[in-house]
Design brief:
Elements: E1 2-7, H1 14-25, E2 28-31, H2 32-41, H3 45-54, H4 62-74, E3 82-86, H5 92-104, E4 111-116, H6 119-133, H7 140-163, E5 167-171, H8 176-188
Helix pairs in contact: 1-8, 2-3, 4-5, 6-7
Length: 191
């Protein structure tokens, strides 16, 4: 079973690389961003509450995310070879809760892939995505706030997984295929 976390600053290519990983390794893809957007589009109470945080560039509270993710993991396709988590955990508290939740299900994280991309490139990618996707959170003010929040709260998650011996830094600059080649090398050594 291959249980992967893919992380990195907003705009680093997590979503794009996750799709390639899912296809090659036959994994369930759980994106907390997608799960949250589904709640928001459905106008559930949870979605309305989550939107109030996201629209200001803030992180959704841990317990809300953990509840959504636990439900998704319990409902995942058991025929797959594991799961890739995209956009979670974003804080050390979430990482600890994730590891406990997986352990309760007889599972564990295989590796955290940390995509490294220069800040200027991140901003360019996010602005370009905002122009093409219409995502309201891809504007300069919110992008800067999201990067600040990431650096303050999410980057320490890498240290947590380093302490578990489950961390891999991946150069996220270059073509999609070049980046995926680096990721595949890491994953093939973790099988």
């Amino acid at each position: 079973m291959l249980n992967i976390i893919i992380c990195g600053a907003p705009g680093c290519g997590k979503g794009t690389q996750s799709e390639l990983i899912v296809e090659k390794y036959k994994l369930n893809h759980l994106s907390t961003g997608d799960l949250l957007r589904k709640e928001i589009e459905s106008k559930t109470e949870l979605g309305k509450e989550a939107e109030s945080y996201i629209s200001k560039g803030n992180l959704v509270p841990d317990q809300m995310i953990i509840s959504i993710l636990t439900k998704a993991i319990d409902a995942q396709d058991k025929e797959k070879n594991g799961v890739i988590l995209d956009g979670f955990p974003r804080t050390v508290a979430q990482a600890e809760a994730l590891e406990q939740m997986l352990q309760e299900r007889g599972m564990s994280t295989s590796v955290l892939l940390d995509l490294q991309v220069d800040r200027r490139e991140l901003i360019n990618r996010l602005l370009k995505r905002g122009e093409t996707s219409g995502r309201s959170d891809d504007n300069m003010e919110t992008i800067k706030k999201r990067l600040e929040v990431y650096e303050a709260k999410t980057a320490p998650v890498s240290d947590f997984y380093k302490s578990l011996g489950k961390y891999a830094s991946v150069d996220g600059m270059g073509t999609i295929d070049e980046i995926f080649g680096r990721i595949a090398s890491v994953l093939d050594s973790n099988k």
